[in-house]
Amino acid sequence: NKRCGLLNKVCLLFMDSVTLCFVTVVSSNTAFYRAVIGSDVILRCLFTELPLQQSLSKITVEWYRVDANRDRNSVYTFEDGRALVKRVGAEVNQTRLLHSDASLTLRNVTVRDEGTYTCRIITPVVETVTNTLKVFGMDILLSTPTIIQV
């Protein structure tokens, strides 16, 4: 392993002297999102620009959520040019993927959607982006403070 700033390169040397490198970009930044029950939300996941003429079949995107119980749940996977949706209403725009954008749209959010979402992209560079989603009921947003006189 060699450390290069935020890049952690792992290179494998094969018998025929071909070197294959996987690069992990680690970011300590977590974006925080708030959504109202029943609304749609987009969790951002931008990654390093793709090489020219990169095809969708060469991109892997994995979105998973860790909930309050620390259970890890797969939400969406894109691999070999195909999407596997584990949460109804979850979508990554495939056209945007070619423009280094693997943002996840969650339609009709519920309280069950709360948690920490991780986006993992392999192009063969491996990058991760973390987002935290908090979901509120409409009554929280519409309520007014109560003044209590003593």
UniProtKB/TrEMBL annotation:
Q: Where in the cell is it found?
A: Cell membrane
Give the record's keywords alphabetically.
Answer: Cell membrane, Disulfide bond, Glycoprotein, Immunoglobulin domain, Membrane, Receptor, Signal, Transmembrane, Transmembrane helix
The UniProt entry's GO biological process terms, in alphabetical order, are: cell surface receptor signaling pathway; cellular response to lipopolysaccharide; immune response; negative regulation of T cell proliferation; positive regulation of T cell proliferation; T cell costimulation
User: What SUPFAM superfamilies does the record tag this protein with?
Assistant: Immunoglobulin
InterPro entries xrefs? Ig-like_dom, Ig-like_dom_sf, Ig-like_fold, Ig_sub, Ig_V-set, T-cell_Activation_Regulation
**GO terms for cellular component:** external side of plasma membrane
Q: Keyword Lipid metabolism: yes or no?
A: no
Cited PROSITE patterns: IG_LIKE (PS50835)
* Residue span, Ig-like domain: 38-130
Source superkingdom = Eukaryota
**Membrane topology type, per the record?**
Single-pass type I membrane protein
Query: What is this protein's record name?
Result: Ig-like domain-containing protein
Q: Which organism is it from?
A: Neogobius melanostomus (round goby)
